[in-house]
Amino acid sequence: MNSMLRSARTLATTASRSSVLRRGYSSESVPDRKVAILGAAGGIGQPLSLLMKLNPLVSNLALYDIANTPGVAADVSHINTRSEVTGYFGDDQLGKALEGADVVIIPAGVPRKPGMTRDDLFNINAGIVKGLCLAIAKYCPHALVNMISNPVNSTVPIAAEVFKKAGTYDEKRLFGVTTLDVVRAKTFYAGKAKVPVAGVNVPVVGGHAGVTILPLFSQATPNANVSEEEIVALTKRTQDGGTEVVEAKAGKGSATLSMAYAGALFADACLKGLNGVPDVVECTFVQSNVTDLPFFASKVRLGKNGVDEVLGLGPLSDFEKEGLEKLKPELLSSIEKGVNFANK
Ligand SMILES: NC(=O)c1ccc[n+]([C@@H]2O[C@H](COP(=O)([O-])OP(=O)(O)OC[C@H]3O[C@@H](n4cnc5c(N)ncnc54)[C@H](O)[C@@H]3O)[C@@H](O)[C@H]2O)c1
Ligand SMILES: O=C(O)C[C@H](O)C(=O)O
Protein backbone atom coordinates (compact mmCIF):
# COMPACT_ATOMS: atom_id res chain seq x y z
CA MET A 1 0.00 0.00 0.00
CA ASN A 2 2.75 2.40 1.02
CA SER A 3 4.74 1.38 -2.02
CA MET A 4 1.80 2.35 -4.27
CA LEU A 5 1.71 5.77 -2.67
CA ARG A 6 5.46 6.03 -3.11
CA SER A 7 4.99 4.97 -6.75
CA ALA A 8 2.49 7.76 -7.29
CA ARG A 9 4.86 10.24 -5.66
CA THR A 10 7.69 9.15 -7.93
CA LEU A 11 5.67 9.72 -11.09
CA ALA A 12 7.31 13.01 -11.81
CA THR A 13 10.75 11.47 -11.41
CA THR A 14 9.78 8.59 -13.61
CA ALA A 15 8.29 10.83 -16.28
CA SER A 16 11.67 12.50 -16.66
CA ARG A 17 13.40 9.08 -16.59
CA SER A 18 10.99 7.98 -19.35
CA SER A 19 11.99 10.89 -21.51
CA VAL A 20 15.58 9.76 -20.97
CA LEU A 21 14.50 6.30 -22.18
CA ARG A 22 12.75 7.83 -25.19
CA ARG A 23 15.96 9.69 -26.04
CA GLY A 24 17.61 6.28 -26.43
CA TYR A 25 19.49 5.91 -23.15
CA SER A 26 18.98 2.74 -21.19
CA SER A 27 18.00 2.43 -17.54
CA GLU A 28 18.53 -0.89 -15.83
CA SER A 29 16.39 0.14 -12.88
CA VAL A 30 13.17 0.54 -14.90
CA PRO A 31 12.94 -2.23 -17.52
CA ASP A 32 10.15 -2.18 -20.08
CA ARG A 33 7.12 -4.15 -18.87
CA LYS A 34 3.89 -4.86 -20.71
CA VAL A 35 0.73 -5.35 -18.67
CA ALA A 36 -2.48 -6.60 -20.32
CA ILE A 37 -5.88 -6.20 -18.64
CA LEU A 38 -8.61 -8.55 -19.92
CA GLY A 39 -12.03 -7.13 -19.09
CA ALA A 40 -10.59 -3.60 -19.04
CA ALA A 41 -13.88 -1.82 -19.76
CA GLY A 42 -15.72 -3.31 -16.77
CA GLY A 43 -16.44 -2.08 -13.26
CA ILE A 44 -13.03 -3.26 -12.03
CA GLY A 45 -11.30 -2.98 -15.39
CA GLN A 46 -11.70 0.79 -15.77
CA PRO A 47 -10.31 1.96 -12.41
CA LEU A 48 -7.67 -0.79 -12.60
CA SER A 49 -6.62 0.54 -16.02
CA LEU A 50 -6.33 4.01 -14.47
CA LEU A 51 -4.22 2.74 -11.55
CA MET A 52 -1.93 0.70 -13.82
CA LYS A 53 -1.50 3.80 -16.01
CA LEU A 54 -0.22 5.56 -12.88
CA ASN A 55 2.30 2.79 -12.20
CA PRO A 56 5.78 3.87 -13.30
CA LEU A 57 6.90 0.23 -13.68
CA VAL A 58 4.59 -0.23 -16.70
CA SER A 59 5.85 0.76 -20.16
CA ASN A 60 3.04 -0.72 -22.26
CA LEU A 61 -0.56 -1.06 -21.12
CA ALA A 62 -2.84 -3.23 -23.27
CA LEU A 63 -6.56 -2.85 -22.51
CA TYR A 64 -8.74 -5.67 -23.85
CA ASP A 65 -12.47 -6.26 -23.61
CA ILE A 66 -15.29 -7.56 -25.79
CA ALA A 67 -16.92 -4.10 -25.66
CA ASN A 68 -16.08 -0.43 -25.10
CA THR A 69 -12.27 -0.62 -24.95
CA PRO A 70 -11.60 2.05 -27.60
CA GLY A 71 -13.19 4.70 -25.37
CA VAL A 72 -11.53 3.53 -22.16
CA ALA A 73 -8.13 3.31 -23.87
CA ALA A 74 -8.46 6.75 -25.50
CA ASP A 75 -9.42 8.26 -22.15
CA VAL A 76 -6.65 6.62 -20.09
CA SER A 77 -4.04 7.23 -22.81
CA HIS A 78 -4.22 11.01 -22.31
CA ILE A 79 -2.70 10.73 -18.82
CA ASN A 80 0.89 11.96 -18.96
CA THR A 81 2.67 8.98 -17.40
CA ARG A 82 5.25 6.56 -18.75
CA SER A 83 3.17 3.84 -20.39
CA GLU A 84 1.88 3.69 -23.95
CA VAL A 85 -1.78 2.61 -23.88
CA THR A 86 -3.46 0.53 -26.61
CA GLY A 87 -7.08 -0.60 -26.66
CA TYR A 88 -8.02 -3.98 -28.13
CA PHE A 89 -11.55 -5.03 -28.87
CA GLY A 90 -13.08 -8.42 -29.62
CA ASP A 91 -11.66 -11.90 -30.26
CA ASP A 92 -9.66 -10.91 -33.35
CA GLN A 93 -7.52 -8.51 -31.34
CA LEU A 94 -6.93 -10.67 -28.25
CA GLY A 95 -3.65 -12.10 -29.59
CA LYS A 96 -2.20 -8.63 -30.22
CA ALA A 97 -3.27 -7.53 -26.73
CA LEU A 98 -1.41 -10.46 -25.18
CA GLU A 99 1.74 -10.65 -27.30
CA GLY A 100 4.79 -9.74 -25.23
CA ALA A 101 2.84 -9.31 -21.97
CA ASP A 102 4.82 -9.74 -18.75
CA VAL A 103 1.71 -9.63 -16.55
CA VAL A 104 -1.89 -10.41 -17.55
CA ILE A 105 -4.63 -9.29 -15.16
CA ILE A 106 -8.05 -10.93 -15.63
CA PRO A 107 -11.13 -9.17 -14.23
CA ALA A 108 -13.33 -10.43 -17.13
CA GLY A 109 -16.63 -11.98 -16.18
CA VAL A 110 -19.94 -11.35 -14.47
CA PRO A 111 -20.21 -10.06 -10.89
CA ARG A 112 -22.61 -11.21 -8.15
CA LYS A 113 -26.06 -9.82 -7.36
CA PRO A 114 -27.59 -9.95 -3.85
CA GLY A 115 -28.46 -13.51 -2.82
CA MET A 116 -25.82 -15.12 -5.05
CA THR A 117 -22.66 -16.92 -3.98
CA ARG A 118 -19.44 -16.57 -5.96
CA ASP A 119 -19.95 -20.17 -7.07
CA ASP A 120 -23.22 -19.09 -8.76
CA LEU A 121 -20.97 -17.23 -11.26
CA PHE A 122 -19.21 -20.44 -12.25
CA ASN A 123 -21.40 -21.34 -15.24
CA ILE A 124 -20.64 -18.09 -17.08
CA ASN A 125 -17.18 -17.18 -15.81
CA ALA A 126 -15.59 -20.64 -16.14
CA GLY A 127 -16.07 -20.50 -19.92
CA ILE A 128 -14.80 -16.91 -20.16
CA VAL A 129 -11.66 -17.72 -18.17
CA LYS A 130 -11.02 -20.91 -20.13
CA GLY A 131 -11.15 -19.04 -23.45
CA LEU A 132 -8.84 -16.27 -22.22
CA CYS A 133 -6.34 -18.77 -20.79
CA LEU A 134 -6.22 -20.67 -24.10
CA ALA A 135 -5.18 -17.38 -25.69
CA ILE A 136 -2.61 -16.68 -22.96
CA ALA A 137 -1.08 -20.13 -23.55
CA LYS A 138 -0.78 -19.28 -27.24
CA TYR A 139 0.35 -15.65 -27.20
CA CYS A 140 2.19 -15.02 -23.91
CA PRO A 141 2.87 -18.40 -22.24
CA HIS A 142 5.49 -16.93 -19.89
CA ALA A 143 3.37 -14.09 -18.50
CA LEU A 144 2.41 -13.90 -14.83
CA VAL A 145 -1.37 -14.37 -14.69
CA ASN A 146 -3.32 -12.46 -12.00
CA MET A 147 -6.77 -14.05 -11.81
CA ILE A 148 -9.48 -11.78 -10.39
CA SER A 149 -12.57 -13.37 -12.01
CA ASN A 150 -14.77 -15.30 -9.59
CA PRO A 151 -15.06 -17.89 -8.28
CA VAL A 152 -11.27 -17.56 -7.80
CA ASN A 153 -11.23 -20.90 -5.91
CA SER A 154 -12.25 -22.55 -9.21
CA THR A 155 -11.00 -20.17 -11.93
CA VAL A 156 -7.36 -20.59 -10.86
CA PRO A 157 -7.54 -24.42 -11.14
CA ILE A 158 -9.29 -23.99 -14.52
CA ALA A 159 -6.40 -21.82 -15.72
CA ALA A 160 -3.86 -24.36 -14.43
CA GLU A 161 -5.57 -27.20 -16.34
CA VAL A 162 -5.80 -25.17 -19.55
CA PHE A 163 -2.10 -24.35 -19.33
CA LYS A 164 -1.20 -27.99 -18.53
CA LYS A 165 -3.06 -29.18 -21.62
CA ALA A 166 -1.29 -26.55 -23.72
CA GLY A 167 2.06 -27.63 -22.26
CA THR A 168 2.75 -24.16 -20.86
CA TYR A 169 1.86 -24.57 -17.18
CA ASP A 170 4.32 -23.06 -14.75
CA GLU A 171 2.94 -23.04 -11.20
CA LYS A 172 5.20 -20.11 -10.37
CA ARG A 173 3.29 -17.87 -12.80
CA LEU A 174 -0.35 -18.36 -11.86
CA PHE A 175 -1.95 -16.35 -9.04
CA GLY A 176 -5.46 -15.97 -7.66
CA VAL A 177 -5.80 -12.37 -6.50
CA THR A 178 -6.88 -12.42 -2.84
CA THR A 179 -5.38 -9.03 -1.99
CA LEU A 180 -8.82 -7.51 -1.36
CA ASP A 181 -9.27 -9.87 1.59
CA VAL A 182 -6.00 -8.56 3.05
CA VAL A 183 -6.99 -4.95 2.34
CA ARG A 184 -10.29 -5.51 4.17
CA ALA A 185 -8.72 -7.36 7.09
CA LYS A 186 -6.24 -4.51 7.58
CA THR A 187 -8.97 -1.86 7.45
CA PHE A 188 -11.34 -3.67 9.82
CA TYR A 189 -8.54 -4.57 12.26
CA ALA A 190 -7.21 -1.00 12.37
CA GLY A 191 -10.71 0.26 13.12
CA LYS A 192 -11.26 -2.18 15.97
CA ALA A 193 -7.72 -1.96 17.40
CA LYS A 194 -7.71 1.83 17.04
CA VAL A 195 -4.28 1.85 15.41
CA PRO A 196 -3.21 3.76 12.28
CA VAL A 197 -4.15 1.58 9.30
CA ALA A 198 -1.01 2.43 7.33
CA GLY A 199 1.15 0.34 9.67
CA VAL A 200 -1.20 -2.67 9.92
CA ASN A 201 -0.43 -6.12 8.52
CA VAL A 202 -2.75 -9.12 8.56
CA PRO A 203 -2.11 -12.31 6.58
CA VAL A 204 -5.22 -13.86 5.02
CA VAL A 205 -4.97 -17.49 3.94
CA GLY A 206 -7.15 -20.22 2.41
CA GLY A 207 -9.25 -19.18 -0.57
CA HIS A 208 -11.54 -16.39 -1.73
CA ALA A 209 -15.14 -17.22 -0.79
CA GLY A 210 -16.98 -17.18 2.55
CA VAL A 211 -15.43 -19.46 5.15
CA THR A 212 -12.51 -20.30 2.85
CA ILE A 213 -11.25 -16.75 3.59
CA LEU A 214 -9.23 -17.15 6.80
CA PRO A 215 -7.69 -13.97 8.23
CA LEU A 216 -4.95 -14.69 10.76
CA PHE A 217 -5.61 -11.92 13.27
CA SER A 218 -3.40 -13.72 15.82
CA GLN A 219 -0.48 -12.66 13.58
CA ALA A 220 -1.75 -9.10 13.03
CA THR A 221 0.72 -6.32 13.63
CA PRO A 222 0.87 -4.09 15.52
CA ASN A 223 -0.28 -6.38 18.29
CA ALA A 224 -3.29 -4.76 19.99
CA ASN A 225 -5.69 -5.58 22.73
CA VAL A 226 -8.54 -7.09 20.72
CA SER A 227 -10.85 -9.51 22.54
CA GLU A 228 -11.68 -13.07 21.40
CA GLU A 229 -15.22 -11.91 20.69
CA GLU A 230 -13.97 -9.06 18.54
CA ILE A 231 -11.65 -11.44 16.63
CA VAL A 232 -14.64 -13.67 15.83
CA ALA A 233 -16.58 -10.62 14.59
CA LEU A 234 -13.61 -9.32 12.56
CA THR A 235 -13.15 -12.73 10.96
CA LYS A 236 -16.81 -12.90 9.97
CA ARG A 237 -16.76 -9.36 8.59
CA THR A 238 -13.66 -10.13 6.48
CA GLN A 239 -15.27 -13.34 5.17
CA ASP A 240 -18.46 -11.44 4.33
CA GLY A 241 -16.75 -8.29 3.01
CA GLY A 242 -17.69 -9.01 -0.60
CA THR A 243 -21.30 -9.68 0.33
CA GLU A 244 -21.41 -6.42 2.34
CA VAL A 245 -20.57 -4.53 -0.88
CA VAL A 246 -22.88 -6.63 -3.09
CA GLU A 247 -25.80 -5.87 -0.77
CA ALA A 248 -24.95 -2.17 -0.51
CA LYS A 249 -24.82 -1.94 -4.32
CA ALA A 250 -28.25 -3.61 -4.40
CA GLY A 251 -28.05 -5.32 -7.78
CA LYS A 252 -25.52 -2.99 -9.42
CA GLY A 253 -22.57 -5.39 -9.04
CA SER A 254 -19.86 -6.12 -6.50
CA ALA A 255 -16.68 -4.45 -5.27
CA THR A 256 -15.01 -2.58 -8.12
CA LEU A 257 -13.07 0.38 -6.68
CA SER A 258 -11.52 -1.40 -3.69
CA MET A 259 -10.85 -4.37 -5.99
CA ALA A 260 -9.13 -2.17 -8.55
CA TYR A 261 -6.95 -0.82 -5.73
CA ALA A 262 -6.18 -4.35 -4.50
CA GLY A 263 -5.54 -5.61 -8.05
CA ALA A 264 -3.18 -2.72 -8.71
CA LEU A 265 -1.30 -3.44 -5.48
CA PHE A 266 -0.87 -7.09 -6.40
CA ALA A 267 0.19 -6.36 -9.99
CA ASP A 268 2.68 -3.81 -8.66
CA ALA A 269 4.12 -6.51 -6.36
CA CYS A 270 4.42 -8.91 -9.33
CA LEU A 271 6.24 -6.26 -11.38
CA LYS A 272 8.59 -5.49 -8.50
CA GLY A 273 9.33 -9.22 -8.15
CA LEU A 274 10.02 -9.52 -11.90
CA ASN A 275 12.33 -6.52 -11.65
CA GLY A 276 14.36 -8.17 -8.89
CA VAL A 277 13.21 -6.08 -5.94
CA PRO A 278 13.99 -8.21 -2.85
CA ASP A 279 11.51 -9.34 -0.18
CA VAL A 280 8.26 -8.68 -2.01
CA VAL A 281 5.71 -10.74 -0.06
CA GLU A 282 1.95 -10.85 -0.69
CA CYS A 283 -0.83 -13.29 0.19
CA THR A 284 -2.12 -14.99 -2.96
CA PHE A 285 -3.90 -18.20 -4.04
CA VAL A 286 -1.33 -20.46 -5.72
CA GLN A 287 -0.40 -24.09 -6.24
CA SER A 288 0.77 -25.02 -2.78
CA ASN A 289 2.15 -27.68 -0.43
CA VAL A 290 1.34 -25.67 2.68
CA THR A 291 -1.72 -27.87 3.39
CA ASP A 292 -3.02 -31.06 1.79
CA LEU A 293 -5.00 -28.93 -0.72
CA PRO A 294 -3.47 -28.48 -4.20
CA PHE A 295 -4.15 -24.70 -4.24
CA PHE A 296 -4.12 -22.47 -1.20
CA ALA A 297 -3.65 -18.78 -0.41
CA SER A 298 -0.79 -17.89 1.90
CA LYS A 299 2.09 -15.47 2.01
CA VAL A 300 4.22 -15.83 -1.11
CA ARG A 301 7.60 -14.26 -1.87
CA LEU A 302 7.57 -12.89 -5.43
CA GLY A 303 10.67 -12.93 -7.59
CA LYS A 304 12.07 -12.74 -11.11
CA ASN A 305 10.11 -15.84 -12.21
CA GLY A 306 6.91 -15.22 -10.27
CA VAL A 307 6.60 -17.33 -7.13
CA ASP A 308 9.98 -17.47 -5.40
CA GLU A 309 8.78 -19.20 -2.25
CA VAL A 310 5.39 -20.20 -0.85
CA LEU A 311 5.66 -19.35 2.83
CA GLY A 312 4.13 -21.43 5.62
CA LEU A 313 1.20 -20.48 7.82
CA GLY A 314 3.10 -19.68 11.01
CA PRO A 315 1.57 -20.34 14.43
CA LEU A 316 -2.26 -20.39 14.46
CA SER A 317 -4.65 -19.76 17.35
CA ASP A 318 -7.12 -22.54 18.23
CA PHE A 319 -9.87 -20.50 16.54
CA GLU A 320 -7.79 -20.26 13.34
CA LYS A 321 -6.90 -23.98 13.47
CA GLU A 322 -10.61 -24.74 13.63
CA GLY A 323 -11.28 -22.33 10.74
CA LEU A 324 -8.58 -24.04 8.69
CA GLU A 325 -10.16 -27.48 9.11
CA LYS A 326 -13.62 -26.04 8.37
CA LEU A 327 -12.58 -24.43 5.09
CA LYS A 328 -10.88 -27.48 3.58
CA PRO A 329 -13.92 -29.43 2.26
CA GLU A 330 -15.44 -26.37 0.54
CA LEU A 331 -12.14 -25.24 -0.93
CA LEU A 332 -11.32 -28.73 -2.18
CA SER A 333 -14.70 -29.11 -3.83
CA SER A 334 -14.35 -25.70 -5.60
CA ILE A 335 -10.87 -26.69 -6.81
CA GLU A 336 -12.16 -30.04 -8.11
CA LYS A 337 -15.10 -28.34 -9.82
CA GLY A 338 -12.63 -26.16 -11.75
CA VAL A 339 -10.38 -29.08 -12.66
CA ASN A 340 -13.33 -31.18 -13.85
CA PHE A 341 -14.73 -28.32 -15.94
CA ALA A 342 -11.42 -27.75 -17.70
CA ASN A 343 -11.03 -31.45 -18.49
CA LYS A 344 -14.52 -32.25 -19.71
N1 LIG B 1 -10.84 -11.57 -6.72
C1 LIG B 1 -11.56 -10.66 -6.09
O1 LIG B 1 -11.28 -10.31 -4.95
C2 LIG B 1 -12.72 -10.00 -6.79
C3 LIG B 1 -13.25 -8.81 -6.28
C4 LIG B 1 -14.30 -8.20 -6.94
C5 LIG B 1 -14.83 -8.78 -8.10
N2 LIG B 1 -14.30 -9.94 -8.57
C6 LIG B 1 -14.81 -10.57 -9.80
O2 LIG B 1 -14.32 -9.85 -10.93
C7 LIG B 1 -15.18 -10.08 -12.05
C8 LIG B 1 -15.49 -8.78 -12.76
O3 LIG B 1 -16.25 -7.93 -11.94
P1 LIG B 1 -16.74 -6.47 -12.48
O4 LIG B 1 -17.46 -5.83 -11.37
O5 LIG B 1 -15.61 -5.76 -13.13
O6 LIG B 1 -17.77 -6.93 -13.61
P2 LIG B 1 -18.29 -6.07 -14.85
O7 LIG B 1 -19.46 -6.80 -15.42
O8 LIG B 1 -18.45 -4.65 -14.47
O9 LIG B 1 -17.07 -6.14 -15.88
C9 LIG B 1 -16.67 -7.33 -16.47
C10 LIG B 1 -16.08 -7.02 -17.83
O10 LIG B 1 -15.67 -8.25 -18.41
C11 LIG B 1 -15.91 -8.14 -19.79
N3 LIG B 1 -15.91 -9.46 -20.42
C12 LIG B 1 -16.86 -10.42 -20.43
N4 LIG B 1 -16.44 -11.47 -21.15
C13 LIG B 1 -15.20 -11.18 -21.60
C14 LIG B 1 -14.25 -11.86 -22.40
N5 LIG B 1 -14.49 -13.06 -22.89
N6 LIG B 1 -13.07 -11.25 -22.63
C15 LIG B 1 -12.81 -10.03 -22.13
N7 LIG B 1 -13.67 -9.33 -21.39
C16 LIG B 1 -14.86 -9.89 -21.13
C17 LIG B 1 -17.25 -7.42 -19.89
O11 LIG B 1 -17.45 -6.88 -21.19
C18 LIG B 1 -17.08 -6.37 -18.82
O12 LIG B 1 -16.54 -5.17 -19.33
C19 LIG B 1 -16.41 -10.79 -11.46
O13 LIG B 1 -16.31 -12.17 -11.71
C20 LIG B 1 -16.30 -10.52 -9.96
O14 LIG B 1 -16.95 -11.48 -9.20
C21 LIG B 1 -13.26 -10.55 -7.93
O1 LIG C 1 -17.99 -10.60 -3.39
C1 LIG C 1 -17.88 -10.67 -4.61
O2 LIG C 1 -18.68 -11.27 -5.32
C2 LIG C 1 -16.76 -9.95 -5.29
C3 LIG C 1 -15.42 -10.19 -4.67
O3 LIG C 1 -15.07 -11.53 -4.63
C4 LIG C 1 -15.26 -9.53 -3.33
O4 LIG C 1 -14.71 -10.15 -2.43
O5 LIG C 1 -15.65 -8.36 -3.19
Automatic annotation (TrEMBL):
Subcellular compartments: Mitochondrion matrix
Reactions the enzyme catalyzes: (S)-malate + NAD(+) = oxaloacetate + NADH + H(+)
Keywords, in A-Z order: Mitochondrion, NAD, Oxidoreductase, Transit peptide, Tricarboxylic acid cycle
Record-annotated active site: 208
GO molecular function: L-malate dehydrogenase (NAD+) activity
Entry-linked InterPro entries: L-lactate/malate_DH, Lactate/malate_DH_C, Lactate/malate_DH_N, Lactate_DH/Glyco_Ohase_4_C, Malate_DH_AS, Malate_DH_type1, NAD(P)-bd_dom_sf
EC number: 1.1.1.37
Broad class of where this protein is predominantly found: mitochondrion
Sequence positions that bind substrate: 112, 118, 150, 184
Example GO BP: tricarboxylic acid cycle
Lactate/malate dehydrogenase N-terminal domain span: 34-176
This protein's GO CC annotations: mitochondrial matrix
Cross-referenced PROSITE patterns: MDH
Full protein name: Malate dehydrogenase
Organism: Linum tenue
Phylogenetic classification of the source organism: Eukaryota, Viridiplantae, Streptophyta, Embryophyta, Tracheophyta
